[in-house]
Amino acid sequence: MTDPQRFKDGLLGELQSLRAFAISIAGNVERADDLVQDTLMKAWSNMHAYTEGTNLRAWLFTILRNTFYSEYRKRSREVEDDGTYSERLAVHAEQDGHMDFTDFKAALAQLPADQREALILVGASGFSYEEAAEICGCALGTIKSRINRARSRLVALLAVDSGDEFGPDARSHAVLSSGPLSSPVGE
Q: Boundaries of each RNA polymerase sigma factor 70 region 4 type domain copy (predicted)?
């Protein structure tokens, strides 16, 4: 069991070295101070993991280095934004998608079993035409034909005239694209 007072004294004794190392890898004094603070917090909360009598300095430097690289990886996935990008983010109304999916499931259920199976294998499960033909035990041309007929039948059942009918309606699209609306609803 690690003595908390000795552990604390050891942490405080390494502060200057930790800060110098943090500045060297972060290249920014404020960022380095944050790294040192995070390192000390992690070390204190994991005091039980430290084996007394081992190299405390090496343990702390490892924590600091791992923290720096974890945050570096996280930041590399983040998008710099001055607000213009986030202002354009929007979520489509959930009820429209739910209703569209309900309609789709009903139309899918009306397809003949062989067409439905072929369409689900290729369209939803991600199998290639060749793999779907092998699974169904039929020729490649037969799978392609079944999928073509299934898609055509779904278009007819769902009364879809073009690909523009998917996604938000015209009013929602105008709002999402920050375009002016020609007239409010009801006018």
A: 105-154
CB 11 within 8 A of CB 44: yes
**Residue 64 pLDDT > 50, yes or no?**
yes
- pTM score, whole prediction: 0.43
User: Which pairs with CB-CB distance under 8 Å and at least 24 residues apart come from 61-68?
Assistant: 61/17, 61/18, 61/21, 63/39, 64/18, 64/21, 64/22, 64/35, 64/36, 64/38, 64/39, 65/25, 67/35, 67/38, 67/39, 67/42, 68/22, 68/25, 68/26, 68/35
Helices then strands, counting H and E runs in the chain, come out as 10, 0
The token pair that represents 112 in the structure block: 């003949």
Q: Which CATH architecture has domain 94-176?
A: Orthogonal Bundle (1.10)
Render pLDDT for 96-112 as a digit per residue (tens, 0 to 9): 667 778 888 899 899 99
Domain ranges of the chain: 4-77, 94-176
Is CATH 1.10.275.10 the classification given to domain 4-77?
no
Interatomic CA distance for residues 39 and 69, integer angstroms: 12
% residues pLDDT > 70 (the chain)? 79
Nearest to 35 by CA among 56, 7, 27: 27
Instruction: Round to whole Å and give the CA distance between 114 and 144.
Output: 12
